[in-house]
Each structure stands twice: as C-alpha cells, then as structure tokens.
Amino acid sequence: MKELSELMAKEFSTTQVRAPYTRPMTAKDFEPSENTSIWWLSSAGFLIQSHGTLLMIDPVISMQAGSDENCELGHRLLVPLPIEAADVPRLDAILYTHKDDDHLGPVTASALIRTGGLYAGPAIVVQELERLGVPSSQARAFRIGESFRIGKVEITLTRADHAYPSQHPYGPEDCCGFFIRTPDGTIWCTGDTRLLAEHMQMSGVDVLLLDVSDDPYHFGVENAVKLANRLEQAAIIPHHYGTYHGPEMLPFNGDPNKLAPHITRSENRYRILAPGERYVLKKTNDVQ
After folding, report:
1. 118 by DSSP, 3-state: which?
2. Which of 259, 282, 254, 284 is closest to 270 using CA atoms?
3. Rounded to an integer, what distance in angstroms lies between the CA atom of residue 205 and that of residue 214?
4. Of 75, 239, 250, 271, whose CB has the highest number of CB atoms within 10 Å?
C-alpha cells in the first residue's frame, strides 16, 4: 500500500473542500415510510428512518446564539445545516459514538430531549449527557458488542480506537461505532477510529458510513480505501468533511473525491451526498 499512500499524499492539497450545497429538510422527512432512508446531516451526523423508526447519529445541528454563520461549536459553517434541532419533530433514539463536541453537540443534545428519543452510547457519553441535563431515565449506556432494539431496528456497538493524546484520553470502551440492522439491510457507522483488525473481518454491510478525514486518529485515506474495498458489496456514504471552516484542522479536511479513483466500482457504490439529501437503502444500492 506504500505506493497508494504516496499517491494520495500528493493528491491531497491544503485547500479545504466544501460539501455539496445543502438540501433543506422538513417535518415531512420524519413521517413514517415503508422503507429505510439515510440523510447526512453534515459533519459526522446522520438521520436514519426505517419503517417509521427514527434514529440520529452524532447530530450537531444547532447554531451559535445570535449567529447565522457559526454553529453551536463556534465554527463557521461551510454549508448551511439541513435542519436545526429545534425543528426536529420526533426521534426514537439519539446515538453517540463518543463525546467529542463535533459529535456530541451540547446545545443539540439538550434541544433533542423533547423528542422523547432514547439517548444511547458508551458509559462516558451517557455521563456527559446527564451532565447536560438529559434525564437518566432517557439515557442508557451500552458496552462494545452489546445489542439493543429500537422499534424496527437492532443496534450493536462496534469497537473504535480513537485514543488521541488529550487531557482525558479515551479508553477501549469510551468510543464506538454502530452496526444497524433494518428490515431492508444493514448500515455500519464506524465512528471516529483508527483501522482495527476486527474492522477488516466485518461482513454483511449494505451501507458503510465512511469517515474520510485524513487524520492519524481516524482511518486516514489509505485505510478508508482499504476498508471500503474489503466491504466490496457495500454502498459508501462519505462524511466527516466539508462542514466547518478550519483549513489547519486535519479532522475537518477530508476530500471524498480523492478516494473515489481508488475504490473498487466507485461509480456504482460511492455516494457523495449533500447535507439533507436522501438515500434509500436497497439491495441494489440505487440512490433515490
């Protein structure tokens, strides 16, 4: 893989890539349907609806008070949010892979309490949610490998290694991904993680939500391509790029277009979505 790594390093530039322009979402997107749909919310966030069951993963969808340019984290947005937390009508679950603020937005987490959804993630995440005011009765911690059901879907926590040096480094149970079984197929959100041997043993993935940020505590582009090609039957939706202004910040600076030439059959299974754009899960991996 050395030649591929060197080629990719040359292909990536310091110019920050902007996500495709946002498609606004409305309450209609939250109405029950007879299929499974996925919307990218920008950054690392997703909405999944499966036959009326509604899940959000790592939503950061609130603005900074008094600003129409900066999100709740203080970062200037490169593209508008597709929907704000205050406009989300209902959810059955809000899933968090870890507690970094670009995944667990504190304003969003508080604003979504009224949706009635169950907050779920590793124990360290649930502790943070309760500190933010989420009622303990509405939050539940799970361990890596544990599964639970929400409506029409089954969710299993998968292992993640995001132990970057910080004041409070993450331990082996502090970060996760989510493997989601729906009536129409499976979705795997890996979370922020370096590539692990067990990731390469995964199978039965119909849609891979692929982190394309080029950062040493994420997959990095070489390993993102390696995983995408290992799961050669999966449709791929790239994320963790093109949302926040920060050309000097590696986690914000992926470019999904640079991965495409190295992904097997990318023309058939690589789907670069705009924030708010709908993808319908089908075994044929057709975008609707």
Report:
1. strand
2. 259
3. 23
4. 239
